[in-house]
Amino acid sequence: MLLAHRPAAAGLVAVAIALPALWAGEFHLRFLAEILIIGTAVMSLDLLVGFGGLVSLGHAAPFGLAAYAAAIASQSLGGNLLLVLPLGAATGMAVAAVMGAVILRTSHLFLLILTLLLGKIAWEIVFHWREVTGGADGLRGLPPLSLGPWELSDARSLYLLAAGLALAATTAARSFAAAPLGRALIGIREQPLRMTALGYSIPRIRFSAMLAAGAIAGAAGALYPFVNLYVGPQSVHWTLSATMIVMLVIGGVGSLWGAFLGSAAYLTVQTYVSSYTDRWQLFVGLVFVLTVLLLPAGIAGGLRSLVGGWAHGRNGNDRGA
Amino acid sequence: MTAVLEIAGVSKRFGAFQALTDVSFEVQEGETLGLIGPNGAGKTTLFNLISGFLSPDTGSLRFMGEPINGLPPARRAARGLVRSFQKPMVFPALTARENIAMAARQRAGDGLRWLGARRALEAAEARANRLLAESELGRRGGERMADLSHGEQRMVDVLMSLALEPRLLLLDEPTAGLARAEAERLLEMVRRHDARTAVVLIAHDIEIVFGACDRIAVLDLGRVLCCGAPEMVRAHAAVRTAYLGALADP
C-alpha cells in the first residue's frame, strides 16, 4: 500500500530483495532470512515502543511461543505454510492478549517488570514441559515448509518467504500506525490524560496494539524454526526480548524499517565477530553506545538525515545555478 | 430551561484537608456559568469531580438527568461532558489540524479504527478544517503545535474540546496568559460555536468572567459562597470580603 504510492522506493526494495536471491549462496541466504524474520519481530516491537511508548521486556514470548506452536503442529500435520503461518500469528496474538490483559493499566517501570515476568513464565513453561517442547534440547527434525505442491526448504525459498513476510508485515504495521488507531496510540504516549479527557479508552488502545504486535511477531516466529530446522528455549528467553530492544535502538525507534537495519547490524556482529572472539557482545555494546551517542534516532534516523541533507543541498545547488 | 448538570451536596477530602464541602448548584443548557474564587478554593478539584478524574466522598452528580457518579472520565466525555485543563494539553509534535482531528475522530466513533481508515481520516480532517476556519487559525492548521504561540495553543486546545460537540464544556482557565482581546475572542468563539452548549468557566480575570457569564458561582475554602447573576455576586458582602475586595467596584 505504502510502496504503491512510491514507485521508486518500491523498485529499490524489489531490487534489494532480488539481488541476494540471484547471487547469494546458501549460508548467506539463510542468514538474510534470519535477519528478516528477527527484523519483522523487532518491527512489531517498534509498534509498542516507538508509537505507544510501551517498552516490553517480554516480546520474545509471542515470537518464541508461536515458533514452538508452528514447530509442534508441523511435526504432526506437516509444514503446510497455510497452516503454520496463521497458527503462528494466532498464537502470537493469544500470548499478546494474555500479556495485554495484565499490563493494561501499568506503565514505565511496572510495565517493564510485568512483561519481564510474563516472559519468564513463558520460558519456564517451555523449558520444563519437556514432553511437548523438548525442554532444554528444543525441537529438531522438523518437516520442510510447503505451499501446495511446492517444497520451500531450500535457502532461496526460505529467504524469499522471509522477505515476503517482512514486506507484508511492514505494510500492515505502517497502515496500523497511519490509521486512527495508530494515531491514538501516539496520543496515549504523548498525553494520556488528554486522551482520556477526549473519551479515548487507554486500555483498549494498548490492548489493540498488543494484539497487532503479537500477531506480527507470531507470524515471524512461525517461520523461524524452519530456517535453522530447530527451535529452542532461547527463542522465548527474556534475553531475546532485551536483544530485540537493543536491535530496535540501533536501527531507530519509531521508524519501523529501522528494525531490519538494527537486526542486520546485531546479527552481523554476532555472526562474524563471534568467529574471531567469544567477546563479540563487547562489539555489540560498542555499537549500541555509539548509536545512542551519535545517532539517537538510530541508523534509520541517520540515513534519513543524510538523504534529507543531500536532497536539501541538491535543491540549494539547483536554485543557485 | 433544561438542567445539563446537577451537583448536589458534593464533598471531597484529601487526608486532613477538606477540599470541597457540600457543594450544590445546577448548570442550564446554553448557559455560561463562571466559577471564581481564590487559589485553593477547590475550583479545579470540582472540575476533576465533574469530569470523573476524582470521585466525590459524598453527594451526587447528574448529567443530562442521568446519575454519573462512578462513570469513568472517557465515558463522560463520550456523553458530551468535556473538559479542558489549566495548561494547554495538546500533542506538541502533531499539527494543529491533527490535534483537532484526534478529537473529531473520537466523536465520530472512528477513534480506534484501522480498517476503513482513509474515510475516517478525511472526515476528521474536514471537521478540523472547519473548526480552524471558525477560529481564524485556518492558515496555521499545518503547523506543529510546538511551533504555535501560547495563545494559538490555547485556541487549538479549546477547538479540540469543541470537536467533541460538548453538551457541557468545563474550561479551566482557558484565558490564562492571554491578552484581554485574545481571551474575549476565544470565549466568543466558544459561545458562537453552539448556543445549546452549557459552559462552566474558571478564570482569574474578573472582568472577563463578569462580562462573559450569565451566572457566577463563588467558591471559598471549598464552599459555595454564592451563586447568581453577576450583579448579585458583585454586591454580595461575603464575596467582597473573601475574594473580590476592590475588584467588585465596577
Number of helices of chain A: 15
What number of domains of chain B?
2
Radius of gyration of chain B: 18 Å
- Sheet-strand content of chain A, in percent, reads under 5%
Uncertain regions spanning at least 5 consecutive residues of chain A: none
What's the total number of strands of chain B?
A: 10
Radius of gyration of chain A: 20 Å
Biggest β-sheet of chain A: count, sense, barrel? 3 strands, mixed
Largest interface between protein chains, with number of residues from each side? A-B, 26 and 34 residues
Describe the structure.
The complex is a heterodimer of chains A (321) and B (250). By secondary structure, chain A is mainly α. Chain A has 15 helices and five strands. In chain A, β3 and β4 (150-151) form a beta hairpin. The radius of gyration of chain A is 20 Å and the shape is globular. The two termini of chain A are 37 Å apart. With 250 residues, chain B is α/β, with parallel strands linked by helices. Chain B has two domains: 1-80 and 166-181 and 195-250, Rossmann fold (3-Layer(aba) Sandwich), CATH 3.40.50.300; 90-165, no CATH class. Chain B contains nine helices and ten strands. Chain B has helices at residues 43-51, 73-79, 96-107, 117-134, 150-163, 180-193, 206-212, 230-235, 237-244; strands at residues 3-14, 17-28, 32-36, 58-63, 66-67, 81-83, 168-172, 198-202, 215-220, 223-228. A six-stranded mixed sheet of chain B has the order 6-7-8-3-9-10, with helices on both faces. In chain B, strands 2-1-4-5 form a four-stranded antiparallel sheet, with helices on one face. The model of chain B has no long low-confidence stretch (mean pLDDT 94). Classes of the chains: A mainly alpha (321), B alpha/beta (250).
